[in-house]
Design goal:
alpha/beta; 10 helices; 35% helix; globular
Length: 305
């Protein structure tokens, strides 16, 4: 079946917005312009957000819970952008929602981007921020999760694997929101679909090529890891019209087969980034609520029930 002949039936709450959402907003030719626009977001710092630079040079935007006594849970949040663009500032509202809903400390990391800084630069920046977060006096080191969307979800999976391998941090959970997790999707025949928005198979090839540089994909790509046992409980969410759908569902199933508790949320008719594009829709609110409940159970188990 050709791409043009494939049926597209968007979720009813997402169909109207889909008409205005581009399929591939980032290309090698407009990368620097898109980055410039993204970086402009960092100039605005909402009340209650702390902008910090760690001794390592890694940037962090810190969102503390409004009220809490004693050390509590925390979430390291990693922004998306295909490993190429983006800033933690783009998720200020989202991170504040997590902090307020869960009463946890949220640190959004500013990691180095490809292709200027290929693997493992961004991954190591995220891990550095995680180690800093775990050591904060306000944080209970046994109640720390890592999470992110798109490339941030891929980096979250990679951080979870790295933390397990290094044995320094015992993560309580990993939140993988439509994660960009498998480079092989860039060349898989028949994957492209007219329902894809914001990221396509062509975009995927560009992003992974830039991120990997000359690295060995077997070591750098989370989905290529053969043994997933021992990793923290996971939540994986993706839409059926997301270019990452198949790889995300496969990763969730592999986690379960390896004995890792994993919740899989598949949204029919949803495209990549739908929850940001149509944030006020009920389907987006339900998607976020599922994430909050997963984190609540794993970061604040005493508050559940």
């Amino acid at each position: 079946m050709s791409v043009l002949s494939q049926t597209v039936e968007f979720h009813p709450e997402l169909a109207r917005a889909a008409r205005f959402v581009p399929r591939s907003p980032v290309t090698p030719w407009n990368l620097r312009v898109v980055r410039l626009l993204s970086n402009l977001q960092e100039r605005r710092v909402p009340e209650g957000t702390e902008v910090l630079t760690l001794p390592s040079g890694v940037g962090v935007r810190l969102h503390r819970p409004a009220t809490r006594t004693g050390p509590g849970g925390a979430l390291l949040w990693i922004h998306g952008g295909g490993y190429l663009i983006g800033s933690p500032a783009q998720d200020d509202v989202l991170c504040r929602r997590f902090a307020d809903e869960l009463g946890v400390t949220v640190a959004a990391v500013k990691y180095r981007l490809a292709p200027d800084n290929p693997y493992p630069a961004g991954l190591e920046d995220c891990y550095t921020a995680l180690r800093w977060l775990v050591d904060l006096p306000a944080v209970d080191p046994t109640r720390v999760a890592v999470g992110g969307a798109s490339a941030g979800g891929g980096l979250s999976a990679a951080v979870a694997q790295l933390a397990y391998d290094r044995g320094e941090i015992d993560l309580a959970a990993q939140l993988l929101v439509y994660p960009m997790i498998d480079d092989r999707s860039g060349t898989r025949p028949g994957l492209d679909h007219p329902g894809h928005r914001l990221w396509t198979q062509k975009s995927n090839r560009f992003g992974w090529r830039a991120y990997l540089g000359g690295a060995d994909p077997a070591a750098a790509v989370p989905a290529r890891r053969t043994d997933l046992s021992g990793l923290p409980p996971a939540w994986v969410g993706v839409g059926t019209f997301d270019v990452f759908h198949d790889e995300d569902v496969d990763y969730a199933e592999r986690l379960r087969s390896a004995g890792v508790p994993c919740e899989l949320e598949v949204v029919p008719g949803a495209y990549h980034g739908f929850d940001a594009i149509a944030a006020k829709s009920q389907v987006a609110r339900d998607f976020f609520a599922s994430q909050v409940e997963f984190l609540r159970r794993n970061l604040n188990p005493a508050a559940v029930g």
